[in-house]
Amino acid sequence: MAIAPVAATPEIFNDLNGAEAVLNAADAPCAARTWPPTGAAYWALTAIILATFLTFFDQVVFGMLAQRIKASFGLTDAQLGFLAGPASIICYLFVGIPLARMADIYPRKYVLSGGVAVVSVITAFGGIAQTFTQFVLSRVFLAAGGSAHAPSSYSLLVDAFPPRKIPRVFALLQFGFIGGTTLGAIVGGVLIEITGRWGPATIGGFHIFGWQWIMIWLGAPGLLAALLFLTVKEPARLAPVPGAVQPPRDASLFRRVLTLTGLDAARAIHANGKVYYPLFAGLALSAIESFGLSFWRVPFMIRTYHWGEAKIGAVLGSMILVASLLGLVIGSVFVEWLGKRHKDANVRAAAIFFGLVTVCAIVSPLMPNGYLSLVTMSIGAMFGIAGAVPQNAAIQRVTPNAMRGQVTAIYLFMFTFFGAMGSFVIGLIQSYVIRVEADLWKSLTLTAILILPLATFFMVRAIRPYREEVERLLALGH
Question: pTM for the whole thing?
């Protein structure tokens, strides 16, 4: 269940894994740099944690509303899967990379503030959508508004803290994800139970279902977070790595516009394809579990075990909280053990955790009762968050500083696209192959069996080229 927020984070557990030599080498080129004051750096981290919390809180609550959205708008499972999947990536496909480029050339605090504000307003608009089409449009622009959040956040934090502190910083960042996913389930379940007793209301010509009030309420906290970003001190950017592919400086207007499409980031990725491609493939396929399958878990619990959203939220939220915290501990301990033996500890650990998540994803829908299913699901979440940190650290470790925002955006686009398509594909299978609403478990199991072993395979393939690239960068003093 863990998302690579969350998932896409720079060199997170290296000082937790005892690889002091790697971190000291990373600090060497930065010895003469003046870093922002500690208080200012941690204030920026606090603002990003809050925004991350709100992002995942919204995602979890939206997933818990799935069955009610289907009933209110009279949707098929294929339409519901489209709403959760392709609807959320259509606009990202066209504006996500250009917006991420803004994180590379403009003050990131303004990019973050604007994105959070847009997301908040559009979330509230979803609460007054009158038709399925209007609701789809709200999700389309919602994804566009949030597309620059992760690239801007990672870029800002890497420039705000010395390399030796990055592991601690990005471990703390995980609490935004953990808080959003756990409280989203618990609070979302309670809110759904409360609003479920409310009948539809007509206000100012708008016909509003009870559950839509939740989306209206969700928009308000984001506006406060947007204002909070304006108080963040923008850190200076790190110098680029010698020999890395860099964006053009003295270029024509056409060439500059072309850069916004991600051309230079794509060149950097292709130039080091033996490292990037298997990592991209592994992340893309793992997104099926992280987003695609997780979206359908609440409808699965309702249809298979006849649980209500409040019960699902209370039990699942508590289990995920424990599982996530254990995942951070298990992940750090395991990567520490690997880090003493292998320079490729991040990718090696991710491959192992991928395999464990695959087993849990396949077994969970087959459990004889709801509690066992959620326990298995939570164990999978534990392994997922344990692997999410080192998995995504590899990308930040080998990405040129000047294009970190765009490369991260492309990397996360793979996650977003395949995760979104996963929810849609499951909906299609359920509507046109399985056909029986109560047999949603068959669609979840089939998808896990077909997709997740491939994710593990690609991560295994990434181990050797990643190790060789880390050794090359260390030799250059980076």
Answer: 0.67
